[in-house]
Amino acid sequence: MENNVLEFECVGLNNGGKFPIENTGRGKDISPEFIIQNLSTRAVTLMITLEDLSHPIKGFTHWIIWNIPARDRITKAIPSGKSISSLQGAVQGIGYGFHCYAGPKPPKGKSHKYCFTVYVLDCKLDLSPFSFKRKVLSKANRHIIQEGKIYGYFE
Question: What is the mean pLDDT of the chain?
């Protein structure tokens, strides 16, 4: 039986730890590197979301990217853009990061909790880069074969 809980590492961020400054809006604001450890043999693509769980808007989306070809490593500093050629056409949608990664940047003096979720899908998604998380997740829902989360804090 296949394990549907995805194990992954977000380089520089221990689960429940503090975000590295370079991955925040107060640093270089670059996406971290991800190392996937138990990827399903049925995996076709990966999708990643970054949500601010402390934001007044529940599950406020900082970043969403999908159609990353299934692989065990996603390099850091994914560039801005609707379609990422270095990731064979992976698509970045609409969030706080408009077609780009937008790291944590809560109001000064406030600590916010964030969550990276990596989804493993058995297909590619045919969606506009102008799609929001709700639409992407709705389309992906029946195709998610693994999922994993890492939480972090930033002040």
Answer: 95
Domains belonging to the chain, first-starting first, are: 8-154 (3.90.280.10)
CB 68 within 8 A of CB 90: yes
Spatial distance between the Cα atoms of 40 and 112, rounded to a whole number of angstroms: 32
Of the candidates 10, 3, 132, 18, the residue with the CA atom closest to the CA atom of residue 64: 132
Structure token digits, residue 150: 């890492």
What does the pLDDT look like over 130-151, one tens digit per residue? 999 999 999 999 999 999 999 9
Say if residues 81 and 99 touch (Cβ distance below 8 Å). yes
Tokens at 41, concatenated: 């043999």
Amino acid letter for position 41: T
Span 35-85, pLDDT tens digits: 999 999 999 999 999 999 999 888 899 999 999 999 999 999 999 999 999
Pair 74, 68: CB distance under 8 Å: yes
Q: Which residues contact 16 (CB under 8 A, 6 or more apart)?
A: 151, 152, 153
